[in-house]
Amino acid sequence: MTDTTEGEARRPRTAKKPRNGVLTFLRDLVIIFIAALLVSFLVKTFLIRSFYIPSESMQNTLQVNDRVIVNELVPGAVKLKRGDVVVFKDPGGWLTGETLPNVQPTSSVGKAADWLLTQVGLGTGDSDDHLIKRVIGLPGDEVTCCNDLGQMSVNGVPLTEPYLKLPAGDTRASQTDFSVTVPKGTIWVMGDNRNNSRDSRYNGDTPSKGFVPLSDVTGRAFVISWPTNRWTWLDDHPEVFAGVEQRDK
Q1: Angstrom distance (rounded) from CA 194 to CA 167
Q2: 198 CB contacts (<8 Å, ≥6 apart)?
Q3: Which of 17, 22, 91, 147 is buried deepest, with most CB atoms within 10 A?
Q4: How many C-beta atoms surround the C-beta of residue 242 within 10 A?
Q5: How far apart are CA 125 and CA 249, in angstroms?
Q6: Cα within 13 Å of Cα(19), Cβ side
Q7: d(CA 207, CA 181)
């Protein structure tokens, strides 16, 4: 009687071990998945995100359908510099009337994959309400165009801009003349494809008056991540603004 009771007591314990092992594995898998999502969310929120380029305004630095990785520590923990290529939310009215190519996935699988990647900062599902331009003027800067040589000036220092895309024979940095002083807490931005960019010059009638509030800046684009044959670091061209920075001192 004792042997039978001991045998019956042992059999349930032996039968439960596989089930307990599977449950433990599934529990650990869920914990790992949640932890990975949390870490990815924190990375997206505070460190880096991916965006696609929907327009020609930054050619030839950036091409349509390029993907860029953005450092979100700028301009919070790291200061913006003149020449930085920045991604920012539409301050209001900048995208009104813009016709942009649709480069988002169209299949259900593609949309699901892009949604998941967007949650961890590597997808581009939230790019539609963002723009990308180059910082020309920081708060307090006087930005004017154009001098007799067609150059733009910042704080009286003429700029030689090697990144500009201009029509053959055109040497003016802007088709329209302007003179602005950048208000506190904002920046003045322009596209490298200077004659095909709806940038600060053409948004004076919007709520931001053409200036981009620093609070709307998502971060600094620092690398082209896709397509692979376009992989390269993005240059902020410090030599262009060297004279301006010396005057700052």
Answers
A1: 9
A2: 57, 94, 98, 191
A3: 91
A4: 12
A5: 42
A6: 5
A7: 17
Q: Which residues of 8-39 are buried (b: 16+ CB within 10 A; e: fewer)?
A: eeeeeeeeeeeeeeeeeeeeeeeeeeeeeeee
Pair of tokens at residue 36: 């990975």
**Tens digit of each residue's pLDDT (9 = 90 or more) over 34-89:** 765 565 555 555 578 888 888 999 999 999 989 999 999 999 889 999 999 999 99
Query: Which residues have a catalytic role annotated?
Result: 57, 133
Using a 10 angstrom Cβ sphere, with 0-12 exposed, 13-18 middle and 19 or more buried, the burial of residue 101 is exposed
What are the angstrom distances between the C-alpha of 156 and each of 70, 147, 211? 31, 10, 20
- How far apart CA 75 and CA 56 sit, in angstroms, is 25
d(CA 227, CA 248): 38
What is the per-residue pLDDT across 14-47, written as a single tens digit (0 to 9) for each? 555 556 777 777 776 777 767 655 655 555 555 7
Evaluate the omega torsion of the peptide bond into residue 183 and state whether it is cis, within 30 degrees of 0.
no
